[in-house]
Amino acid sequence: MKKDLMKVYEIDASRFKGSALDVVHPATIMEVRSVVARAKRIVLRGAGTGLAGGCVPLNGLDVVLDMSKINQIGNFNSERRTVEVEAGVILDDLQSYLAKKNLEFPVNLLNNNVCTIGGMIAMDIAGSRAVKYGKTSNWIKWVDVVDGYGNLHRKGVTELSDYAGMEGITGVIVKACLKLSPLKKRTASLIKVESLEEVVLIVRNLKRNPAVSMIDFLDKKISKGLELTKDYYLIVEYEDGSGLLKGKEYEDLMEMSDKVYSFVVNKGYTRIEDFRIMIDKFVKLMGWLEGVGIPTFGHIGIGILHPCFGRDDEKFIPEMMKLVKRLGGQISGEYGVGILKIKFVEEGDKRILINVKKRTDSLNKFNVGKMI
Predict the structure, then answer these.
(1) Running DSSP on this structure, what letter comes out for residue 355?
(2) Chain mean pLDDT for the chain
(3) Cα gap 51→272, rounded to integer Å
């Protein structure tokens, strides 16, 4: 590929910039196998929406494997509620296909219109409905993976952890069999909350309700930016008629929720983090974030918060990560480690990742320099 055309592949949504040796666009799984067998180093790319530099090629040594053309949907089984999809299938396209059959893939993201199934599995994305449905890996029966020699392997549930959430450092996920759920008619409520302590009480109560599928949090800055009052808000989704907002009102609220990410980016917050904490640590962490002026939103139902940093605010990130660890949290909830968070990975966790990498990618070919 020409150098000027390669530039778009040398960054992701994190805006971390690298350099590529080449970019290839295989159209079949066989072509993926051929490219992988020949290349010395491979970086995998889905939609390029990652926020940790995970699909950025480094030092002009990596061949970028663009999976967007590997996008077939097939082998739908209505009785078993399964469907087989290739890695480049976009989530919205899959949902449109399934809606005609009154089914859905229940993992929901803010960027459904661009995110790919392969990327979702590689990151083991949780998404907004994880309070009810868990992570992407909970809905996978098997994956087909290409190893460093170009060989194709089918990996079942017992081996899935070697690939789901490993950010592409262990092999190329090319296809998956997904489990499906009946399509739901959902409702929602927008709850204004006066204090952080009250947020915790409401969230704990909501999590006892089996009909609740989403509990998202907006801080005062985010709320004001979305043209709400300058208060804390919870967006709560139900899988029955419990919500106050139905039909068009429900759709409008979900559309507003989807605008959060574009709002913070347009306001110049170029670094969006994603730590995960227990709900009883929420008030202390939010107190610190508000103290340094960092706007925050997130899937509070599962403890994932997204503090948003402008370039002048990034100096606070190391201190925040120390606080997250001290309070027993995780440095990444769904965006991954990539390049930007390697320095925050604990040594014990790093040793585990290195062992998995050696076992699955003995040639050290995939996403070198990421996670570990």
Answers:
(1) H
(2) 94
(3) 7
Closest C-alpha among 184, 124, 179, 162 to residue 330: 124
Regarding whether 209 and 123 lie in a shared domain, the answer is: no
8 A C-beta contact, residue 267 and residue 313: no
| Dist. CA 182–CA 112, nearest whole Å | 18
Quickly tell me which residue has 């599928």 as its tokens.
213
Structure letter (DSSP) for residue 298: E
Rounded to the nearest 10°, the torsion over CA 145, 164, 335, 52 is -40
* Structural domain boundaries enclosing 286: 187-326
Q: Which of 124, 115, 107, 116 is nearest to 161 (CA)?
A: 124
In Å, how far from its chain's centre is CA 63? 23
DSSP 190-257: EEEES-HHHHHHHHHHHTT-TTEEEEEEE-HHHHHHTTS-SSEEEEEEESSTTSSB-HHHHHHHHHHH
**Backbone phi, then psi, for 128, in 5-degree steps?**
-70, -25
Quote the CA–CA distance of 203 and 299 in Å, as a whole number. 11
Instruction: Let me know: does 149 contact 140? Beta carbons within 8 Å.
Output: no
275 and 225 co-located in one domain: yes
The two structure tokens encoding residue 9: 């592949």
Which positions of the chain have pLDDT values less than 70?
Answer: 1-4
Please tell me whether residues 279 and 203 are part of one structural domain: yes
- Whole-number Å distance between alpha carbons of 276 and 279: 9
Residues 159, 121: contact at Cβ < 8 Å? Answer: no
Which residue, 155, 183, 211, sits at the end of a domain?
183
- Total tally of structural domains belonging to the chain: 2
What is the pTM assigned to this prediction? 0.93
Give the phi and the psi of residue 185 in degrees, each rounded to 5: -100, 105
201 and 154 in a single domain? The answer is: no
162-204 pLDDT per residue, tens: 999 999 999 999 999 999 999 999 999 999 999 999 999 999 9
